[in-house]
């Protein structure tokens, strides 16, 4: 829950589209309701844990059983943190010692810290670029590093750490896929009743949203969406949104719920563009 001392913005009767995955949307929706908004939920990402029938399962199981073989473990996201904790509960009744844990973003670190895993995060930001500024990740020659993540994503972190002399592996804990929706559902959520704003927290979610908004047969025009306020957590995602035709973009201070909601209020109060 958000601290009660925080003054929440007034979003009375604004119909705000939330695109977070199902597992991450509840607190954001509750916060929007506290602000007087009318949130609607259309997940733009589907999180699918790697199952024991998947050909990749054996490698993942081996990595998670051998966490003590790594000097550094980096957790990419809240989803990765939740999935990793399930594996740790299964194989590690006592966490192995001697590992330096890192998390991208305060929220990811908080999830791990709540389970007594001391995870460091950069206060300079919530992405790979911010993580790579940490002095502790500069002199890493010969270190074995495990990156906990979904099965797709940016390669920048691993490539940079490898260039610095580390031996880097990915533990792909889940797949991120584009959800499929019935066209009737898309019309009722996006088009039948006008939206005020859209909240997008990743480039992949942005791409998926544009895909599903067009309908199964690409029969819906998404032009009307380009003039809605779009709140994103970074300049990188704002650039992607511009390339897709969005014109009213606000960059939040971060991807956390309060930052996104506060930026939404600021965007609707002015013609703010990223």
TrEMBL record:
InterPro entries listed in its UniProt record: 4pyrrol_syn_uPrphyn_synt_sf, 4pyrrol_synth_uPrphyn_synth, UROS/Hem4
Domain of life: Bacteria
Gene3D superfamilies: 3.40.50.10090
Residues in Tetrapyrrole biosynthesis uroporphyrinogen III synthase domain copies: 26-261
Reactions it catalyzes: hydroxymethylbilane = uroporphyrinogen III + H2O
Entry similarity comment: Belongs to the uroporphyrinogen-III synthase family.
Purpose of the protein: Catalyzes cyclization of the linear tetrapyrrole, hydroxymethylbilane, to the macrocyclic uroporphyrinogen III.
Official protein name in the record: Uroporphyrinogen-III synthase
Gene: hemD
């Amino acid at each position: 829950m958000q601290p009660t001392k925080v003054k929440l913005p007034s979003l009375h009767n604004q119909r705000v589209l939330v695109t977070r995955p199902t597992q991450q949307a509840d607190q954001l929706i509750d916060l929007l309701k506290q602000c007087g908004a009318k949130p609607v939920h259309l997940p733009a990402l589907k999180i699918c844990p790697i199952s024991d029938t998947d050909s990749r399962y054996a490698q993942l199981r081996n990595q998670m059983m051998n966490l003590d073989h790594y000097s550094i473990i980096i957790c990419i996201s809240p989803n990765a943190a939740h999935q990793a904790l399930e594996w740790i509960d299964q194989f590690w009744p006592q966490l192995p010692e001697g590992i330096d844990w890192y998390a991208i973003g305060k929220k990811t670190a908080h999830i791990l810290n709540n389970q007594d895993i001391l995870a460091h995060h950069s206060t300079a930001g919530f992405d790979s670029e911010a993580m790579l500024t940490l002095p502790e990740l500069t002199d890493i020659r010969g270190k074995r590093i495990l990156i906990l993540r979904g099965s797709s994503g940016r390669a920048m972190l691993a490539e940079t750490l490898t260039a610095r002399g580390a031996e880097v592996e990915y533990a792909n804990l889940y797949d991120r896929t584009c959800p499929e929706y019935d066209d009737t559902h898309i019309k009722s959520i996006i088009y039948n009743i006008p939206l005020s704003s859209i909240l997008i927290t990743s480039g992949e979610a942005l791409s998926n949203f544009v895909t599903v908004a067009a309908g199964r047969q690409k029969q819906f025009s998404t032009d009307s969406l380009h003039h809605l306020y779009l709140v994103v957590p970074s300049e990188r995602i704002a650039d992607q949104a511009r390339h897709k035709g969005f014109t009213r973009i606000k960059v939040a201070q971060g991807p956390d719920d309060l930052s996104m909601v506060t930026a939404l209020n600021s965007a609707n109060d002015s013609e703010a563009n990223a």
